[in-house]
Amino acid sequence: MHAEMKARTLSMIYYIGEILMVLAVCQLIPLFTSVLYKETRFVYIFSVTTSIMVIIAAFLLLLGGKYRDVHLSSGEGMTVASASWLAGMLLCALPYYMSGNYLSYLDCCFDVMSGLTTTGLTMIQNMDHLSNGLNMWRFVLTYIGGQGMVVLALSFLTRDTGSAYKMYVGEAKDEQIRPGAVSTARMIWKISLLYLGIGWITMTIAGLVAGMPMGNAVLHGLWIFMSGWSTGGFAPNSQNILYYHSVIYELATVVFFTTGSFNFALHYSVLSGNKRELRKNIEIVSFTVTLTVLTLLTTYALMRNHIYPNVAALFRKGFYQMISGHTTTGFMSLYARQIYHDWGDLAIFAMILAMLFGGSACSTAGGFKGLRIGIIFNAIRAEIRQYTVPQSRILTTRIHHIRDIILTDNMIRSAFSIVFLYLITFSIGTVIGMAAGYSGVESAFESASVTGNVGLSIGVTSPSNPAFLKITYILIMWLARLEFISVL
User: What confidence tier does 307 reach under pLDDT thresholds 50, 70, 90?
Assistant: First the structure.
């Protein structure tokens, strides 16, 4: 028994090393960016931190290499996934720490976890004057996190194994787009890279139309697309999307972050020619319904308060923030404190619900997910219908998600359980926010943002936060992104 436990432990260590090695290789992107822009100091920083990560990853690979073929159990696969996210956070924070743009290593870890979980809240100092290399690292982490660091690592495996699928599930993904976890992971990245090419060109053109110089338009176009597609919310400037003062730029981001919030299996189905799936899919239906209801509620609240002078301003401020929150993107076209001071409790309440509801399962988005909302709604409707027929008659409920599915008790129980865990986590975050000295409204909004991996802020998150609040938010982002089970 002891030998078997040792073999399984070393096998997990090997896979963690494999994931960290892929992250180390990804640091070559900001390293080359620093070389290209002659940022000598950051060439040195990324050379050092990449070397450190390679050495640590290589050590783990050597330590567990003999046991790489040991098949992991479901729990062990989940442990690899959740532990890799923690180890990745600690190591990916090194360039941030060496840059001097953070007050503490804890703040660096906060930003890495925020990027990897595609949350988008930040503790960075002097954001408007960051090097291109450091900015590139911020957006690379967000792009990796959107698809999943485990998914990225699996894409480089030469063969599929049962262990690969268990790690894939441990990263809160269970859609089998192609046979096997490795081929599914590769297809997810093929889809993302296809959109990257389209999105980069589109956002660059939008930047040029907005009056940006070619060099800035190209860089910002890449970064904003990577952040938007990953529903990440990071921006290269402190004013976020407000910096661009462009309707075209805002509309382009809406298209890409909404598309990014859709299920990868849905993308694959539509790209394969099944366009009817956009109309029939339960996640699209539930997302459309909740977005419509919450947008109407927000619009009513903002109109009642006479905040914006016309429909165009209402759309650019109200609807943009709403869909950014509902897709868990976190792009903002206004200042954080404007929400607290101008919007009123009803609009803020609608935003909190939107951030908690979130986007689609097996996407770059966070939150409850549209699939679970659809399952719960149909389960409640089925329960009500059951009371209207004779007890001897058992009704069968079907939902459509890529294919027709019979709603089972296990699916309902799982949906309710995860949503319940989200609500408990949101409540804990709210209470701890109030314990840190913030009002109930501020604490609830910020807690919904970290629980849904959103990134919209009402002005709470800052380097001046007490350490216990920063740690709480880090843990919530980690738990919520991996949907609790693998961490627990």
Answer: confident
- CA distances for 211 relative to 87, 208, 248, 480, angstroms: 41, 5, 11, 39
**How much is the mean pLDDT over the chain?**
91
Q: What is the pLDDT of residue 161?
A: 65
169-214 pLDDT tens trace:
777 677 777 777 788 888 889 999 999 999 999 999 999 999 999 9
**CA–CA distances in Å: residue 437 to residues 49, 432, 465:** 37, 9, 10
Strands 398-401 and 403-406: antiparallel
Q: Are the C-beta atoms of residues 448 and 87 closer than 8 Å to each other? A: no
Residue 210 makes CB contacts below 8 A (sequence gap 6+) with 217, 244, 245, 246, 248, 249
Q: What is the DSSP letter of 240?
A: G
The helix (run of H) or strand (run of E) holding residue 398 is: strand 398-401
> What's the predicted TM-score (pTM) here?
0.93
In this structure, are residues 106 and 470 in contact, taking their beta carbons and an 8 Å threshold? yes
What pLDDT is attached to residue 391? 67
Burial of 314 (0-12, 13-18, 19+ CB in 10 A): middle
Can you tell me which residue has the tokens 């595609």?
A: 118
Structure tokens at 396: 């069968």
For the beta carbon of residue 117, count every other beta carbon within 10 angstroms.
29
Single out the residue of 370, 420, 327 nearest to residue 120, CA to CA. Answer: 327
- φ/ψ of 406, rounded to 5, equals -80, 125
CA-based R_g, the chain, Å: 22
C-alpha distances in Å from residue 257, one per residue of 106, 230, 261, 342, 395: 29, 7, 6, 26, 38
CA distances to 129, 414, 448 from 238, in Å:
10, 39, 21
Contacts of 199 by beta carbon, 8 Å cutoff, 6+ apart: 225, 228, 229, 256
- What is the pLDDT averaged over residues 125-132? 94
Taking phi over 0 as left and psi of -120 to 50 as alpha, with beta for the rest, 358 belongs to left
Asked whether 478 and 86 are in contact (CB, 8 A), the reply is yes
Q: In one letter, which amino acid is 409? A: D
Task: Flag the least confident range among 81-85, 148-152, 409-413.
Answer: 148-152
- CB count in 10 Å sphere of residue 28: 13
By C-alpha distance, which of 319, 282, 277, 283 is closest to 298? 319
